[in-house]
Amino acid sequence: MDRLPPNHSPEAFLADVFRSRQARQGKVIRRATRDVERYIGREAFISDVYRRGYRAVENAGQIVIFCNQDPVRILRPRDGP
Fold first, then answer.
1. Distance CA 66, CA 30 (A)
2. Which H or E run contains 62?
3. Which CA distances in Å does 25 have to 19, 28, 49, 50, 67?
């Protein structure tokens, strides 16, 4: 995603995120947590993600959004914890 101007509205931020080719194809996208908090706020963003039927996880300053309704599983080795 290109650098967004500081006056970018929450609605425009969401539109940019979810009209990306990856999102439209039901793939996985990611956004920096700081950008989400700056442009729309964490709670509003996560609410919109779930309203669309998607799921998200956060790690290392990134929010990863699964733009489909498939289950998300944490993978672990069979002999691990």
1. 9
2. strand 62-66
3. 10, 9, 15, 17, 8
